[in-house]
Design a protein that fits this description.
Pfam families: tRNA_m1G_MT. It is found in: Cytoplasm. Its EC number is 2.1.1.228. The protein has 2 domains: about 1-155, SPOUT methyltransferase, trefoil knot domain (Alpha/beta knot), CATH 3.40.1280.10; about 190-250, tRNA(m1g37)methyltransferase, domain 2 (Trp Operon Repressor, Chain A), CATH 1.10.1270.20. It is about 30% helix and about 15% strand. The chain contains 8 helices and 9 strands. The strands form 3 sheets. The chain has a 5-stranded parallel β-sheet, sandwiched between helices. The longest helix is centred in the C-terminal third of the chain and has 19 residues, at about 205-220.
C-alpha cells in the first residue's frame, strides 16, 4: 500500500479526488491510502489561526512554521501508518513534476505533501521537507490542485491500480514520446475512418504504425522530448521520412538509420548469334 498524506487548510477540495473513480476504487481495495490532514487542528489557539503577517511588511499572510511542524510530527506519531519517507512542499522553486518523478514516487511507502495557501509557508518550513515540487510555471491560489494532479499521476502507477498492468508503459512520456492516436467504434464517423491498419489484425503492422504515429506527433508537437526518447535506428529512418534532417538526428543523439540495401546483382547470361 502507498499512503498519501496531504496537509492542507481545505481537505474538502481533495476529498472528491480521493474518493471517486480509479483512486477511490484503489482505496477500497487497500492499494492506496489517502490521509487528509487539516492543519488548523495544529494551530494551538481557539480561533484555529494558522497564519500571521510577514516580517518586514508586505501584502498577504504566511503560514506559520510551528503549525506545519506539528502537523508533520503527527504523521510520524501515527502508529497506523509508516512514517513518511518523503515530505514534499509544492513550490514555484521546486523541481518540475514529470512522469519520471511520478514513477519514482510510486515506489515509496508514504508520501506527505504540504499544500500552501495565502503567501505560502514560512521559509523555515523548507528545512522540514525532503524535496520541493512544481507542476508548472504558473501561480495558483493553493497547493490542493497540484496535490490532486500528483495523486492521480502517482496512484495509477501503483501495482494493481490499473486493470492492465502494462497500460501505463505506452502512455505519453512513459515511452519518451507522446502517445499514438487511439480509435474505437464507429469505424466511420462524419467521413473520418479508422485507419485500415488497425482493423487488419496484423499485430506487427499495428505496432509499427503506432510507433510511427508517436514519432510523428512528438516531432510536430514536442520535439524537445526526442533527445531523451531512446530512439532506435529504425526510428531515425522514420523521422527522416517525416521531414527531420541529418542535423536534427545528430542534435537528438539519434543513431544512424540503417544503411540502404544494395540491389542484388544477378549473373548475366551468355548470348550467342546464330551462324
Amino acid at each position: 500500500m502507498l499512503t498519501f498524506s496531504f496537509l492542507t487548510l481545505f481537505p474538502e477540495l481533495l476529498a472528491p479526488f480521493a474518493s471517486e473513480a480509479i483512486v477511490g476504487k484503489a482505496r477500497a481495495r487497500g492499494l492506496v491510502d489517502v490521509n487528509l490532514v487539516q492543519m488548523r487542528e495544529f494551530s494551538e489557539n481557539r480561533h484555529l489561526k494558522v497564519d500571521d503577517t510577514p516580517y518586514g511588511g508586505g501584502a498577504g499572510m504566511v503560514i506559520r512554521v510551528d503549525v506545519a511542524a506539528r502537523a508533520l510530527e503527527s504523521l510520524a506519531a501515527d502508529a497506523g501508518r509508516p512514517p513518511p519517507d518523503e515530505v514534499i512542499l509544492f513550490s514555484p522553486a521546486g523541481e518540475r513534476f514529470t512522469q519520471a518523478v511520478a514513477e519514482e514516487l510510486a515506489g515509496k511507502s508514504h508520501l506527505a505533501f504540504l499544500c500552501g495557501r495565502y503567501e505560502g509557508f514560512d521559509a523555515r518550513t523548507e528545512g522540514l521537507v525532503t524535496r520541493e515540487l512544481s507542476i508548472g510555471d504558473f501561480v495558483m491560489m493553493g497547493g490542493e490542485a497540484a496535490a490532486a494532479c500528483v495523486l492521480e499521476a502517482v496512484a495509477r502507477l501503483v501495482p494493481g491500480v490499473l486493470g492492465d498492468e502494462a497500460s501505463h508503459q505506452a502512455d505519453s512520456f512513459s515511452s519518451g514520446l507522446l502517445d499514438y492516436p487511439e480509435y474505437t467504434r464507429p469505424p466511420e464517423w462524419r467521413g473520418q475512418e479508422v485507419p485500415e491498419v488497425l482493423r487488419g489484425g496484423n499485430h506487427a503492422a499495428v505496432a509499427a504504425w503506432r510507433r510511427e504515429q508517436a514519432l510523428a506527433r512528438t516531432l510536430a508537437r514536442r520535439p524537445d522530448l526526442l533527445p531523451s526518447a531512446g530512439l532506435t535506428t529504425q526510428d531515425s529512418a522514420v523521422l527522416l521520412t517525416l521531414g527531420a534532417s541529418a542535423d536534427d538526428l545528430r542534435a537528438w543523439k539519434a543513431p544512424d538509420p540503417p544503411a540502404p540495401r544494395r540491389p542484388r546483382r544477378t549473373a548475366r547470361s551468355g548470348s550467342g548469334e546464330a551462324g
